[in-house]
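Example record

The entry below shows one chain as it appears in the dataset: sequence first, then C-alpha cells.
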Amino acid sequence: MNDLISKIQHQLPGFSKGQKQIARYILEHYDKAAFMTASRLGATVGVSESTVVRFATELGYEGYPHLQRALQEMIRNKLTSVQRMEVSSDRMGGRDVLQTVLHTDMDMIRMTLDGMDRKAFQGAVEALTGARRIYILGVRSSSALANFVGFYFNLMFDNVTLIHTSSVSEIFEQILRIGPGDVFLGISFPRYSKRTLSAMKYARDRGARVIALTDSHISPLARVSDHALLAHSDMASFVDSLVAPLSVINALIVAVGMSRHDEIEQTFHKLERIWEAYDVYEKPEDEGS
C-alpha cells in the first residue's frame, strides 16, 4: 500500500488540476476508491471518466482496471468490518441487493476459472491423493469451507485430520507429528488468519506439502505454499463471499475422487449399506401410498 501511495504523492505536483483531485481523493479515501468504477470515481471528484483513465496511465498502469485491481489487492486485508460495511453500502446504493450480490458471485467464479493455475491444481490433487496424512485448517468464516472439504475427505480417506481451533496451542498439538509425506491444506481470505498462516509455516518447516486456498498471489498463505489455489472473493462487503472458493473445493474433491475411483466407489457402496441399515436418510414414499 505504501508503495502506491508514495508513488501518487511523489507525482502529485506534476498532475493536471483534474488528476490532482483524483489523487487527493484516493489518498484520503482509498478504501472507497478501490471499489469504484472509473465513471463513478470521476463523478465523485468532479472530473470526466477519461481523466480518470489518463490518471491511471500516468501512474504507469495499462488502464484504470489495473490501477483499481492494485488498490484492491493492497488494501483488502486492511479493511475493518466497519469500513467494509461502508463500502458495501456505497456500492449497493439503491440497486437490487439480490441481483447485485448474485451477479457479483457469478463474476467471482468466472474470474477464478479464467485465472486458475491448472498446474497448481493438478499438483494439489496429486499431493492429496498420495498423502500419508491430510490436515485441513480454516478458521472464522473459512471454517465453513474447511468443514465442507473435511466432511467429504473423511468419507473418502481414513487419514484426514480436520483441525479444531479452540486455541492456538490446540492447533499445534493437533499437528505436532506432521512431517514428510503429509499434506496441509490451509484456507483463509482477507482478513487473513494469523493462526492459519502460523500452522502452515510450521507444516512447511516440518517437511509437509502445503496447499493454500486463498485469494491472491500476494496473500501471505500463497507465499508459504507449494500449491496455491487462488479463488476470487469480493471482500468489500461485510459478508465474506465464499462462492468461488467453494466451487474450487468442489472441483478438488471431484478430481481427487476420480483419481481413486475404484477405491472410493467401494467405500460409498459400504456407506450406502450403513445409511440404509441405520435409517440415515428419509426414504421416498412408496408409489400409491
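Notes for this example: The radius of gyration is 23 Å. The first strand starts at residue 134 and ends at 138.
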